[in-house]
């Protein structure tokens, strides 16, 4: 790992590599936040604030509009895929290349190079996006300093392969618990098997057909999946408990309450002993009809797409700031051992954003 | 805990309490084996041998028949149920009361009191019965010193509530693994969910109807149960692996090969990626028609029953020694937090065995 000072004079592709080689899995972002803060404080056209490991920098030029460029600095756990490696085709491999240090590199490059933007700029770098919603740094800033997040339009640089993605799906995590009664497995009929009692839950999940609704012109794609299952006491004991953790990713035409009700109804006949809502964050409608969003879209070009993954666009949406995703990463490779980013798209994203903010 | 010397002059009920208060979960039997060995070496009518934490004591009177009295000295893990507690109804509560320190107490009392038995006696005390078959102390003695286990008839003092139980069921443990492909749970359709792939396994288990065959006049009762299930990578990742551990308890009219084939056939259409045989020990037919068994049965009385749980009767059976289960414990309470034994049955078992061996 390389924890030297960030060099914002190198291009966004090289800066991405430096950021990837500076490990920052969720919960361990402090050193990277320090480095980001130091690099930004060296730029005289910005004012810099910090809350925990979240860093916010702003221009104060009195422009008619203020644009927010936001990105998280944490990654999922490293899977033997750091340091980064650039191959002959210009593909940069490593943890966080796509999700989302390439986006953070573009933010830092705009901060470095666009010293007199045509719109005021707010740069937000935050921690703990890859873990439970209540830990999310953007949420903490929104609670403690909502004025830092005021703006007319927000661009979240989560990976979209350089296309504009509108809205985001909501994500609900529930734990479905079944109950049984222990007995020696030699006399199974004296007990009741809680793992067998989970059979209807898995059968319903296996038979689930995802809805693909069109919302504000964009087609979303829902998903309902078991992400964990646990049960068992000992190899000769009929288990008295089993827990299935289910993640529901839902289109932004459902409210949070509607999403939870859907899941409750879906498993209603499964004899669930306990239904625990473990984590829940709502989605955001695309909002591409907002004037600021439309202007951005016209400037950077391309057909907008829906965003399947939950992103913090939803948090800006809740603050009343229209927001889109627009970043160089390719979400297909997020959270994978073979995570990678095309450096040509990293450079192209930097170029288009800079052009829009200086034209 | 009380690790003082064993007092074999107290009655079998009090001795059971002393043994329960001397903790010996599987893997931690050494101190109890030491105490048993010391107590037996103090008895001049016995010769004593030891192999690991297994103790074997014998009379050498040149009698026409040799009877083996066997019991394991280990217990399942203690569940805040030691020391023992005797209630006003004569019920002794605590870990190992039923399985099977009450049986061990009866063995030790026969060793102490029946100094001139009408049949030669072999007492076997062994370790690691409650864990994987390859650790079983009786198996280790059978491998290293088969001559120590020679005899005409064996009585295993596993809990039967003072009735004679013939034969035992076999037990096979397999791990059924399903395979998937990881993906971010926001784009579940890019992966394949290994937990959902386990749905047919649980559905078959939930629908399983046990066979209850009559073997040598006794009705057995089979069982097929998931005893553990594990799957999941992270709460936002489609899991690529899931494992269901299944325990098949089968009647002794099936061979080991037939039992394994039954399980393979049962799950044949479940798209199992890997089928692992984790542990397997065969059953034993009742064998109550053998003359030595019949004589014992006539002496102690009562209707014989089938033994559902796997016991080491099967190991004696494999050595060519007919064997039955006959012990004071109640198998319903084995491995339970509220494990207990009726001390009246402990005393009655001691009395009947002593009468048969001295009449």
From TrEMBL, chains A, B:
InterPro entries: Bact_exopeptidase_dim_dom (IPR036264), Peptidase_M20 (IPR002933), Peptidase_M20_dimer (IPR011650), Peptidase_M20A (IPR050072), Succinyl-DAP_deSuclase_DapE (IPR010174). Residues 170-267 form the Peptidase M20 dimerisation domain. The keyword Metal-binding applies. Keywords: Hydrolase, Metal-binding. Coiled coil: none annotated. It is an enzyme of class 3 (hydrolase). It comes from the Bacteria. Its EC number is 3.5.1.18. One of its GO terms (molecular function) is succinyl-diaminopimelate desuccinylase activity. This is Succinyl-diaminopimelate desuccinylase. It comes from Streptomyces beihaiensis.
């Amino acid at each position: 790992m390389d924890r030297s000072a960030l060099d914002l004079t190198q291009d966004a592709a090289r800066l991405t590599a430096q950021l990837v080689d500076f490990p920052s899995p969720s919960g361990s972002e402090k050193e990277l936040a320090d480095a980001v803060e130091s690099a930004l404080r060296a730029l005289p056209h910005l004012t810099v604030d910090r809350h925990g490991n979240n860093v916010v920098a702003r221009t104060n030029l009195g422009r008619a509009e203020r644009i927010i460029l936001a990105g998280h600095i944490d990654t999922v756990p490293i899977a033997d895929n750091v340091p980064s490696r650039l191959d002959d085709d210009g593909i940069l491999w490593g943890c966080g290349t796509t999700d989302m240090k390439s986006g953070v590199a573009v933010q830092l490059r705009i901060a470095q190079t666009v010293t007199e933007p045509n719109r005021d700029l707010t740069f937000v770098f935050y921690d703990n996006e890859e873990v439970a919603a209540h830990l999310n740094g953007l949420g903490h800033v929104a609670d403690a300093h909502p004025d830092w997040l005021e703006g007319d339009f927000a661009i979240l640089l989560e990976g979209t392969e350089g296309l504009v993605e509108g809205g985001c799906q909501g994500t609900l995590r529930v734990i479905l618990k079944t109950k049984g009664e222990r007995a020696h497995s030699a006399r199974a009929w004296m007990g009741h098997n809680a793992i067998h009692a989970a059979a209807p839950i898995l059968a319903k999940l296996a038979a689930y057909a995802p809805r693909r609704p069109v919302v504000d012109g964009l087609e979303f794609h829902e998903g309902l999946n078991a992400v964990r299952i646990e049960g068992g006491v000992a190899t000769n004991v009929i288990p008295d408990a089993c827990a299935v953790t289910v993640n529901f990713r839902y289109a932004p035409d459902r409210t949070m309450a509607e999403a939870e009700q859907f899941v409750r109804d879906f498993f209603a006949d499964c004899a669930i002993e306990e239904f625990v809502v473990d984590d829940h964050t709502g989605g955001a409608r695309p909002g591409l009809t907002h004037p600021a969003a439309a202007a951005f879209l016209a400037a950077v070009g391309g057909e907008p797409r829906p965003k399947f993954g939950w992103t913090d666009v939803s948090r800006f949406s809740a603050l009343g700031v229209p927001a889109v995703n627009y970043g160089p990463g390719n979400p297909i490779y997020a959270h994978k051992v073979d995570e990678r980013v095309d450096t040509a798209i990293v450079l192209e994203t930097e170029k288009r954003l800079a052009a829009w903010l200086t034209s």
